[in-house]
Structure formats: structure tokens, C-alpha cells
Design brief:
alpha+beta, Nuclear Transport Factor 2, Chain: A, 3-stranded antiparallel sheet, 2 helices, 5 strands
């Protein structure tokens, strides 16, 4: 998602863009990071993969952590697919395809995680 400015402030996003932004924020937040704010389960465990090699085991753990994290997002009806791109040494690149609760059109989100410590 691109951050856009509007009148000197950040532009608000709605609908599908808001859901995509929420998913990215949830996955990039370390689980437990918001405990002091009353959200101990918010986030993901993807940060636990830092320092691991980009192989099938790491990708399987990443998929588990993604599914675990997004299960808490009430606006997601179903995660239909998680695909990992050709492994690069220190970059875990993946695409998630989800079906939103209020829309039958799939939403594709591509991300990459730096595995270097």
C-alpha cells in the first residue's frame, strides 16, 4: 500500500484498501507488542523467522504464523491461498489471497520479510 498525503496529513483509506492495510499492519507487528495497550494477541510471529534460512521449513512456519495471525481478523471470510515466490537468500516473498466477509472478489496482498538479523 502506498501512503498518500492529503492537505498535509495522511490520507485515510477505506474498504478493501483499509483491509489490506490492516492485514499488513497485523503481520508486521510482533505478537505481544501491543500488550500494554490491551491487545496481547495482536500481531504475528513472523519476526521469529529472522535469522532463519529461506527454505521450505521456514516457509511452512511463515504460512502457519500468517494463518494464525489472520484468523483474528473478523473481516476475512477465508484465506484461499498463500504462495511463496522463488526463494531468495534473505528475503521471504509471498502473496496472500483472501476473501473478505463483505465481498466475493478476492484480495491479493504481496509482502516480503527480510530474514537477516
Amino acid at each position: 500500500m502506498d501512503i498518500q498525503a492529503s492537505r498535509g496529513d495522511l490520507k485515510l483509506v477505506t474498504d478493501r484498501d483499509n483491509l489490506a492495510q490492516a492485514i499488513i499492519n497485523r503481520l508486521l507487528t510482533h505478537q505481544g507488542e501491543l500488550s500494554e495497550l490491551g491487545h496481547p494477541d495482536y500481531g504475528s510471529r513472523l519476526n521469529q523467522l529472522i535469522g532463519q534460512p529461506n527454505n521450505r521449513r521456514t516457509q511452512a512456519l511463515a504460512e502457519l504464523y500468517i494463518r494464525e495471525s489472520l484468523a483474528a481478523e473478523s473481516r476475512i471470510k477465508e484465506i484461499t491461498h498463500i504462495e511463496f515466490m522463488t526463494p531468495q537468500k534473505h528475503q521471504l516473498k509471498f502473496t496472500i489471497i483472501i476473501l473478505p466477509v463483505d465481498n466475493q472478489e478476492p484480495l491479493n496482498i504481496s509482502m516480503d520479510i527480510n530474514l537477516e538479523g
